[in-house]
Every structure is written in structure tokens, then in C-alpha cells.
Amino acid sequence: MSLQSIHTLAERIRTNVGSVIVGKEEIIDKLLIAIISSGHVLLEDVPGTGKTLLAKALAKSIDSTFKRIQFTPDLLPSDLSGIHFYNQKLSEFEFRPGPLFANIVLADEINRATPRTQSSLLECMEERQLSIDGTTHRLDRPFLVIATQNPVEQQGTFPLPEAQLDRFLFKLKMGYPTREEGLGILKRFLVENPIDRLEPVAGREEIAEAQNAFPSVFVSDDLLMYMLAIVEATRSHPDVSLGVSPRGSQALLRASQVHAALRGRDFVQPDDVKAMAVPVLAHRIALRSAQRLRADAAEQLVANILNTIEVPSDAPLASRS
């Protein structure tokens, strides 16, 4: 698949999902970036803002399998991965796959599950495989975990540890719709749910081809140094107790490449890095206790760092020589 084909593919999917979801073009774009770059997404917002509907619309648009898991304190790791059960007719054990064996998995209210169950997602999110009773099962491509959590309710929840947060490419917020968007939602759902008549506009094979193609998006050495300067600034900032890891810098690189490809370019510009920096890096930063009181403190910190780092000139960015 060519890089221009990635742009065309994203346009088709964006338009199709947009026929169901009103006014969330940026969120849809970031979901496309996540699935093409083999990342995962953490959606943090109050109930009823369309998180589940968005995940279903994306799954239908790319003709992929979709599973929703309601996370609760009594959920076990085997409830996610699957179990071996004894088949009396065959007189042998058979494997019954769990909901993680899907292309798009919605982990609803992930912070309500115990740390043991949360940690069972680490292997499948990072390595696209599951080890069950000593047997390794590969997961089909594409594989995207969309986890949700309610930032308001804290009673009976288990905050995700830093190692788990670091596995998510993006941490996003849906936000309430504007009045115009709210009116559009009411009109769109007046007679029927539009997702019931949503048809696929792409196949899983096309997403897999896009995953193989996007690394060819060119990134100059100056831009690589620019990304590293941003990441290193988070590690030395006085308000930060734990800065962005090397995994975070790699995530910023991949997201910037796909962001450029979605805009029809075969090279990364500083604007691509700036657009991806906050959603990719903010949730990977651990702030000192005095700074944790503000909900958007980490996002604001990354934004301030972007304003202090010198931006490379445009001249050598598109050169491959």
C-alpha cells in the first residue's frame, strides 16, 4: 500500500464513522492513528458521551470483530483470555477463546477491575499475543484496545499503574457536545440508531497493509532530535517525578508518522509532532504531589514544554538524501 492510499483509506473510514458520531473528527482521527500505528487508546470521560458507539462504529467500518468487556472487581484474567474446558463428548480439553480474541476490544471502566486483571492486558497490548496454560496464542491483526474510565467516580476503583498507562498510545477525552452538535445528535437518532445501517468501507487486510506501509514516512534527523528534546525536557522538569520513557518517544515517532500519512504527506513536519505530543506524552508523566490537584496539569506541562523547545527549520525535513 502506498502512503497516498493510507490518506484515501482514512478519508473513507473517517466519513463513515462520522455518519454515526457527531462532531468528534479529532477523536476519530486519533483512533485511526492508533489502529494504523498498532497502538491503544484510553478514553477518559463521563458516561454517555459516545465512547462505546464510537468503538462499534470503527469496528463496523473496517469489517472487524468487536467485543465489549464490562470491567468489575470480580472479573478474572481468565474471563478475558479464555479457558480450557473438558469436552465430555470428545473426552479431551478444548480451548474456549475469551473476548480478547477480537480485532477491537472495548475495556469498559477498566479502573473498576483489580490490578491482577488489569495486568493481564499487558502481554496482549504490547506483544499481540496471549499465553494461556503454557500455550502462546497469536492475536489477529489489527488489534486495538479501547479502554474507558470515568474520571468522576473514584470509590471502588483501582487506578491504572504507570506501567499500564505507558502501553496506551493516547489518552483522550470525548467531551460534551456543543449545542449545535447536540441538536445534530438528536436529529440523527430521532428515528433509528444510524449504526444499525452502517456498512464496512474498508477491510482488515487494508488496515494491516497500512500498518506495514506507514514506517516509510520520512523523518529527518533534526525532527528526531526535536522529539528527543521534548521527551528529555519532561525528565528534567522540576514538577515531574517520572518523565517519559523511551517507549513514549517511540510512540511519539509512530504517531507523528501516521499523522503525516493521514494528511497525504510522505514526510513528518514539526506540526505533526506538536499535534501528537500532548495526547501521546501527558499520561506517561508522573507529577509531584503538589501538581496532581489539577486535572489538566500534565497536558499543560507538555504544552508549555512545546513552547520552550526550538522548532527545526522546514528546509531539510522533506529531504531523504
Protein described:
This protein is an alpha/beta fold. The protein folds into two domains: 216 residues, 3-Layer(aba) Sandwich (Rossmann fold); 105 residues, Magnesium chelatase subunit I, C-Terminal domain (Helicase, Ruva Protein, domain 3, Orthogonal Bundle), CATH 1.10.8. Helix 10 packs parallel to helix 12. It is globular and about 70 Å long.
Quick summary:
This protein has 13 helices and 11 strands. It is an alpha/beta fold. It has 2 domains: 216 residues, P-loop containing nucleotide triphosphate hydrolases (Rossmann fold, 3-Layer(aba) Sandwich), CATH 3.40.50.300; 105 residues, Helicase, Ruva Protein, domain 3 (Orthogonal Bundle), CATH 1.10.8.
Structural descriptors:
Helicase, Ruva Protein, domain 3; two-stranded antiparallel ribbon; alpha/beta; five-stranded parallel β-sheet; Rossmann fold; 15% strand; 321 residues
Low-confidence stretches: none
- The rounded Rg comes to 20 Å
| Strand count | 11
Helix content: 40-55%
Give the end-to-end Cα distance, rounded to a whole number of Å: 23 Å
**How would a textbook summarize the main sheet?**
5 strands, parallel
User: Based on the structure, what is the oligomeric state of the protein chains?
Assistant: single chain
Shape label: globular
Determine the CATH superfamily of the largest domain: P-loop containing nucleotide triphosphate hydrolases
- Structural category: alpha/beta
Number of helices: 13
* Sheet with most strands: strand arrangement: 2-5-8-1-9
Strand composition percent: 5-15%
